[in-house]
Amino acid sequence: MNSLEEKLSILSEMIAFAKADEDLNDSEYNFLFSVATNLGVNKKTFDSLFKAKAQKIIPKTQAERILQFHRLLLLMNVDNNQRLVEISKLHNIGLGMGLPPSAIEQVLSVMHQYPDKIVPPEVLIDIFKAHYN
C-alpha cells in the first residue's frame, strides 16, 4: 500500500483538481473524504490539505497512475457538471503522469456513453491496455 506521503499527495492532487473550477461543492467534498477514508487518512489530516498542499509524488506504477486518473475522472463527474477547465486539467494531469495521450482522449470521449459519465473500471483498464500493446 502507499505510504502516508503518497496518500497525502493523492488527496492533495484531487483537492487541487476539485478547486480548478473555483467551486468545491458538497458532493465533491464528500467524494474526496470517502477517498481519504478509503486510504486511511483521518478527517483532521484530510481537512488540513485544503490549507497546505502535500508534496507531489507521482504514482510509481502504471496501475497506480491509472487508478489515480480514474479517481480524478470520477471526481470530475461527481457533480454532473464537467467544465472545459476540468477536462483540460485532467488531460494535463494524465500526461504529467506519463499516460498515453490517445488513451486519455479515448477515456474522455467514451465517458459520455455511460450513466453519470462513470466509466467502468474494466473499460478504463481495457482502453489503457490497448494503448500499451
Rg is: 14 Å
Number of helices: 7
- The stretches of 5 or more residues where confidence is low (pLDDT under 50) are none
First-last Cα distance: 27 Å
Element order, helices and strands?
A: HHHHHHH
> Fraction of residues in helices?
55-70%
Number of strands: 0
Strand count, sense and barrel status of the largest sheet are: none
- Looking at the structure, what is the overall shape? globular
What's the average pLDDT? 93
Number of domains: 1
Structural class: mainly alpha
Give the SSE map.
Elements: H1 4-18, H2 26-39, H3 43-48, H4 62-77, H5 84-96, H6 101-110, H7 121-132
Helix pairs in contact: 1-2, 1-4, 4-5, 5-6, 6-7
Explain what this protein looks like in three dimensions.
It is a single chain. By secondary structure, the protein is an all-alpha fold. The protein has one domain (4-132). Helix content is 65%, strand content 0%. It is built from 7 helices and no strands. The protein has helices at 4-18, 26-39, 43-48, 62-77, 84-96, 101-110, 121-132. The longest helix is centred in the middle third of the chain and has 16 residues, at 62-77.
